Each structure stands twice: as C-alpha cells, then as structure tokens.
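Researcher: For the annotation table, I need structure tokens for Amidohydrolase. Please keep the output clean. Sequence:
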Amino acid sequence: MTILIKQARVYPISSTILPSADVLVKDGLIHEVAPSIPEQPEMTVIDGTGCHLLPGLIDAHTHVGLYDEGTGWAGNDANETVEALTPHVRALDGVNPLDVGFKDAIAFGVTSVQVMPGSANIIGGTTTVLKTHGKNVEKMIVRETAGLKIALGENPKRVHSHSNNDSITRMGIMGLLREAFYHASRSDRKEHPRIAPIIAALNREIPVRIHAHRADDILTAVRFAREFDLDLRIEHCTEGHLIADDLSGQNLKVSVGPTMTRRSKIELKNKTWATYGILNNHGIEVSITTDHPYVPIQYLNVCAALAVREGLSEEKALEGITLNPARSLGVDHRIGSIEVGKDADLVLWSHHPFHFEARPLLTMIDGKIIHKK
C-alpha cells in the first residue's frame, strides 16, 4: 500500500522541523520526505494541511498487557513473586495483546512500547519491545529481549519481607544481586534459563534496566553496573535531580516517570516535574514514561507537556517520547524519527501534541492506518 501525506507540518525529530512537507509511505516504510511529492493514481492521498505529523510515540517503560485492565487479580501477570530472583521469566510470555491498554495507546499516538516485568523482585526477568497493534504478540515484536529488569529499594523490600524478624534490607538485596551475577559469570551452564539472561547482560548484549527511585539506590545501581561493566539504564530516577552532578558525564540513559501520580510511598516524597529538565541540563538522556497502568498510556504526550511547563525544552520533550526511548531500547534503526527507510509509524495530530486540545487524527503502524478519527 502506498500512502502520501501532503503539506503537514513535519517533525522528523532527528532534524529540523519542516513547516510544510509531504511524506510518502510505501511497503510499510518511509519512502520519501520532500517539500512536494507528485500524486500518482495508485496512492492513497491524505491532506495534512494545518496538521502536525510526528513519528509514533514510544513509551520506554510500561506493563501494558501484563496488568490486563478491568480484570483485577485474574489479569495481573506483571510480578512473579514466588521468589526474589527470577531472571528466567519473560514479559513476552505474559502479554495479552487484546488488553484495552493497547487500543488506548494507538488512539493516542503511542505505536511502540517496552513491556517490563514489575519491580517486586530483585531480578524480575527480561523485557520486550512491541508495536501496539496486533492479536499475536509474536507478530508485534520489535526487539524480543530488550533488557534484564532489576529492582532496588522499597518494592523488593516490602514484597520479600514477611515480618519484622524476617525482612530483607538494601544490603541483602545487593548481596543477592552480586551473588547471582558472580555465580553466572563462573557457571558452566551458560544456556540454563536462569543463567542465560545474566550472561547476556554481562556480555553487554542487553542492558540491565534497574528500578531505582531514591538517590542512594540510583547511585548503588551506577556502582553495581560499574563493578560488572554492565550497560545500564536507570528506570524512574525519581530523585535524580538531587544527584545530577554525580550522574553527569557517565553517558547515562534514564526513563523518568510516572510523575503524574500521587506520592504513594516514602521513596517518592521528592518527586517533581523539574527532574526532567535538570537531568537533561546535566547531559543525561531522558525518556519520558507513563509506567502504564500507573499513569494510563494515553497520557504520554500530556506527561511530556507537563515536563515542558516545568523547564524541559519542547525539543527535548519530543525527543523524550520518540528518539530517546528508541535509542534506549536499541531500536532507533527502525523507529523514533521520520527518516527514509524507517518503519512507517506515523501520527497526524490535530494540534501540536503538547496543546491541550491535541488529538491524533490518524495513527499509522508499519504503513497501515490503524486508527482514524
């Protein structure tokens, strides 16, 4: 199918905004971007005059399809809490692609997500990157294994402490984590399901994605990654603004959020929308996340707009929901910007996506119009 979108305001993200341009989509890919592309009889032509064309939004930290909305306990498959260390479990195996969260994502311009195990366990399992359209999760995969989920702080302490006399501490969490990586590095069973994901992280084939809210937990994650020479991503980074000087210069990629929620636990007491701008100003690459379902995924653009209100530049906020998450997830060769040869995941907005009236008029995934208003 060949689709021509004409005379939209185009935001390539990887280059300067084009005030009025055409984008040609062919065979699922972006085929051409130019000031004017001649119409041909075989083309489906869409008038983008007065509209804003962006790459599909990407949420780098979600549990969409693992917390099946509206089903309660029966649809909660995000945390395998029978033990504290579960490197062998895969988010991919728990995703319900018919979860309404995927439908909401499409309707509000989110075309790709990273689905992660929850943060109840010290090692929670492996993550996956999916397109948001499909009925068979195997056909939605962008990157089958995108990281190894690790969690520090309150969540594993709470879940795996059974009483005042039977509790796990931050010391214990790090002891178990180091022990797991030490034993994996010396194991002669490299293909064992419990060993292989850790070996992949040790070989830097996948990053470790470490859940850390509190400043000391964030720095512990940095220290642990340095100790084992790991490719590190910080998930949440809630108090990152308090230690931005310490994080600067370390080539870090972080996902910040969910910020549009209440301070529901102690380690969220210093949560602020200013974190995004402060981290960015210290040279840290920031992805903006909803952590769906904690903030519903349809509000990803709203979260980015609020970050702009509190000091993040508009340009960096757009990168934070497109190209930055694509780079963090290792899929920027396919998605995250409007460039020739990349997947035709495009969203035509009624207004700039940070405007309070903005709505996607059209959402395209792999060159197919999935949503149209």
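Researcher: And a one-line annotation?
Model: Residues 1-55+337-373 form a domain with the Urease, subunit C; domain 1 fold (CATH 2.30.40.10).
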